[in-house]
Amino acid sequence: KAFVEMVKKVGMDQYEFAIHETKTHEVIENVRNFRSEIGILYLNDFNEQVMSKLLRENSLEFTELFQCDTYVYLWSGHPLAGEPVISMDQLEEYPCLAFDQGKNNSFYLAEEMKSTYEYKKIIKADRATLLNLMVGLNAYTLCSGIICEELNGADYKAVPLAESEKMRIGYIRRKGAGISRIGRVYIEELLAYKDKLL
User: Fold this and answer.
1) What span, in angstroms and rounded, lies between the C-alpha atoms of 70 and 190?
2) Closest by alpha carbon to 142, among 108, 176, 167?
3) Model confidence over 11-68: pLDDT tens digits?
4) Edge-to-edge, what's the strand order for the sheet holding 39-43?
5) Would you say 66 and 169 are in contact if contact means Cβ atoms under 8 Å apart?
6) Closest Cα partner for 143 from 126, 155, 131, 160?
7) pLDDT, mean of residues 140-165
8) Which of 28, 56, 58, 105 has its CA 20 to 30 A from that of 170?
9) For residue 167, which of 140, 190, 149, 143 has the smallest C-alpha distance?
10) How many other CB atoms are there within 10 angstroms of residue 106's CB atom?
11) What does the pLDDT average to over 88-110?
12) CA angle 173, 26, 118 (to 5 degrees)
């Protein structure tokens, strides 16, 4: 949603933008190699030390935008969708969906929370199949809870996780590099959208 609003706000007659939804290590590589000006990642108590080391080694810096709790993301027809809060025990019989990190599959680079939890059922998937698996298998994933109903529809919901962990969501950029005007507009839109939801 923030990207959509940024494109609208820039208001040029002709443009070429790129947005890459990719694996954690590729976000780091894209910013390091000037393919992306900024990359959006999260830190938590578990991954912060390793991620900070990776960022330092790649001459990148992290700027926190906001903090949020952990939510269970599932389709609105899921048996637990009506619960006010969901525990990990309640989720045990349902498949957890985790994003496949490919050859760099370290759990320090996992995109979902609770990456060290011993899941009874887990499916590694790419983003294209995530929503279909949620519906077909009553599967779920863990997320920030920031969902744009306007773009994603009302068929999915985020329910607070009882064993929540704080996520520090922010952006990375090359150390000492300035941010372009368009990059600053994008960051402003991320913050504006966050204020509407949190």
Assistant:
1) 18
2) 167
3) 778 888 888 888 888 999 999 999 999 999 989 888 888 899 999 999 999 999 999 8
4) 39-43, 167-174, 60-68
5) yes
6) 160
7) 83
8) 105
9) 143
10) 13
11) 73
12) 110
3-state secondary structure labels for all residues of the chain: CHHHHHHHHHCCCCCCCCCCCCCHHHHHHHHHCCCCCCEEEEECCCCHHHHHHHHHHCCEEEEEEEEECCEEEEECCCCCCCCCCECHHHHCCCCEEEECCCCCCCHHHCCCCCCCCCCCCEEEECHHHHHHHHHHHCCEEEECCCCCHHHHCCCEEEEEECCCCCEEEEEEEECCCCCCHHHHHHHHHHHHHHHHHC
Question: pLDDT tens-digit profile of 113-144?
Answer: 455 567 788 888 776 688 888 899 999 988 88
Q: Is this structure's pTM higher than 0.85?
A: no
Tokens of 80: 């637990």
Q: Provide the token pair at 124.
A: 């590694």
Residue position matching structure tokens 């498949």: 95
C-alpha span between 95 and 92 (Å, rounded) = 8
Separation of alpha carbons 152 and 124, rounded Å = 21
Residue 3 has pLDDT above 70, yes or no: yes
